[in-house]
Amino acid sequence: MNFTKTFYFLLIVVFGVKLLSAQDIVSKNAISKINTIKGALNLAKHENDTLGIAKNFIYLANFYKDLGLDSEAIKNYHNAQQIHLKKDTLFVYANNKIAFIHLHLKQYAEASQYSQSSVSIAKSINYKTGLATANAILGSVYEKQSNYNAALNYQNESLQLFESLNDSTGIALTNENIGSIYEDLEQYDLARNYFNKAYSFESAKTSDLKINIINNLADVYRKQNQYEQALKLTEEALNLAQSENNKQQEESALKDLSRTYAELQDYKKAYEYLNKQNLISEQQLKNQNIQLVSAMEVLYNVKENEAQVAILNKQNQINKTRQLAIIIISLAVILVFVIGVMHLKKRKKQEQKLLTYKQQLLQADLDIKTAEEASLKREIDIKISALTNYSLNLAHKNKLLADISRTLNNLKSRNPELVKTKLKDIVKTINSDLSKENEWTELMAYFSQINPSFFKNLKTQVHEELTSSEMRLCMLLRLNLSSKAIASILNITPDSVRIARYRMRKKLPLASKDDLQAYILNL
User: Fold this and answer.
1) Where does the HTH luxR-type domain lie (predicted)?
2) Among residues 124, 156, 121, 125, which one has the least CA distance to residue 138?
3) Pairwise CA distance, residues 89 & 124, whole Å
4) Whole-angstrom distance, CA of residue 213 vs CA of residue 243
5) Are 439 and 446 in contact (CB under 8 A)?
6) Neighbouring residues of 471: CB distance < 8 A, sequence distance ≥ 6
7) Taking CA 249 as the corner, what is the angle to CA 196 and CA 264, rounded to the nearest 5 degrees?
8) Are 137 and 122 in contact (CB under 8 A)?
9) How far from 489 is each of 50, 89, 448, 493, CA to CA, in Å?
10) Dihedral of the CA atoms 177, 183, 189, 190 (nearest 10)?
């Protein structure tokens, strides 16, 4: 036994020396990989490609996760989410990665929080892969907290989703998770059933998941006292783990072999396998420590390189600022001189412009006054014309009335037949005078001078052509006269005015409730 321990110790030492000698190469490769990702990240930032920035943050986070730098991985997953605020598949992917890290660190509350967020978002965008992964993580969280009912519910939901996606790895992993829950519940037949299902989906591969499934199957057989089958499966898992150099699964297989032989009361073999397991465990611990130191060294070198780049950038910025300051001062001196010269020229030009503006203002004022005088003259001419027209009309009416008065006086002494004849002549004269179109023409001309666009606007509104009587009616309505006054002027009855208004409404675009006179006044 002492010889065996010494042999394995020397083996670990030799392996450790080799690992340390290869560490520089691994470190350089890791730094090179990180620098490549950061180069792509900076390019995406320069091109303002938010999706590209987010993806490169994801790549960087995944690489840090593989190195075992969980805090750096989480930070970069968050960076991806902050730069890509859209709640899409990328956001869910990052959320699930963060949840898985918290699960690995046994921070179950945080793992549950991020997984629940992923479930909500994945459902809203119908992202089945993200939803299946989030449910699987939630199932593992509840299993670790011994809440087996909730764990089974989430794992079964995950399984259904992976089956709908035909994702063999997801199906195998979820069946393996369900089997582990039933194993914890000591329902070994169900556990073995799910482990066999998991194996059937992973049997064609040589993967860590397959080795883990075989180890779990062997453990179930051991717990059911089927030691021969348990030993066979555990040795298969051990051989696969050794061929894949998977020390974690190798350690698990050795531990299970030790337990099985101990239950078979073959304590010699049990001790032998336990001893091998302890040696692998020590080796694993040293490897983990070396990897952690290497990862921290990589991170330190990356941060140091970034700091040096930042210092160089800052120095370059300072130098550029100094050069820019010198250029600006030189330009300022030249500019002051040029401005001084230009100011003198500009001042003279402004004085000249000011004189020109004053002359233009005076001319504009003169033009305004001339226009006002012309307008006043036109207004006076219109009023004089109107006054003349109405004076002539008044004179004519007065003459007519005087002739009628004289004729009536002369008829006092005449016989009735002659009086009757003369009265008929007088009525004809009066009717003839009332129907004279020239008076209406003059009145409408005067009206058009006061309201130049009225008749034009009226014609654009009517459905049919207007008669002269309708034009007069509209003109009198525009003068805001009552129906009685209009009847008197047109020498018709008020009922005739009402009928004329009704016909006029038909020719205009008026609703039943609209007022005709108000409409005419607004034209």
Assistant:
1) 463-520
2) 156
3) 11
4) 16
5) no
6) 444, 455, 458
7) 75
8) no
9) 84, 87, 19, 10
10) -40
The single-letter DSSP state of residue 413 is: T
Q: What share of the chain is helix, strand, coil (3-state, %, to 5)?
A: 85, 0, 15
Residues 58-83 have pLDDT tens digits of 998 998 888 888 888 899 999 988 88
State how far the Cα of 80 lies from the Cα of 209, in Å rounded to an integer.
Answer: 29
Number of alpha helices (DSSP H) and beta strands (DSSP E) in the chain: 20, 0
125-136 in b/e form (b: 16+ CB < 10 A) is: eebebbbbbbbb
Report how far residue 173's alpha carbon sits from residue 198's, in angstroms, rounded to the nearest whole number.
Answer: 7
pLDDT given for residue 341 in this prediction: 80
Q: Which two tokens stand for residue 253?
A: 């297989």
What does the pLDDT look like over 475-507, one tens digit per residue? 999 988 888 888 888 888 999 999 999 999 998
Write the CB contacts of 258 (distance below 8 Å, at least 6 apart in sequence).
270, 271, 273, 274, 277
- DSSP conformation letters of 193-207: HHHHHHHHHHTTS--
CA–CA dist 371, 132 (Å, integer) = 87
Contact 80, 89 (CB under 8 A): no
Contact 82, 57 (CB under 8 A): no
- Looking up tokens 């990356």 gives 302
Quote the pLDDT of residue 449: 83
- Per-residue model confidence (pLDDT) at position 313: 67
Contact (CB, 8 A) for 92 and 111: no
- Report the interhelical angle of 247-263 vs 227-243 (nearest 10°): 160
3-state secondary structure of 508: coil
pTM of structure? 0.53
DSSP string, 31-48: HHHHHHHHHHHHHHHHTT
Task: Give me the phi and psi of 336, to 5 degrees please.
Answer: -60, -45
Query: Cα angle vertex 413, ends 412, 419, to 5°?
Result: 65
- With the CA atoms of 384, 390, 395 and 396 taken in that order, what torsion angle do they form, in degrees rounded to the nearest 10? 130
Which helix (H) or strand (E) segment holds residue 63: the answer is helix 50-67
Residue 73 CB neighbour total at 10 angstroms: 22
> Over 90: is that where the pLDDT of 193 sits?
yes
DSSP 451: S
C-alpha radius of gyration, the chain, whole number: 54
Instruction: Count the Cβ atoms, other than its own, within 10 Å of residue 156.
Output: 14
Tens of pLDDT along 313-368?
A: 677 777 777 788 788 888 888 888 888 788 888 888 887 888 887 788 888 778 88
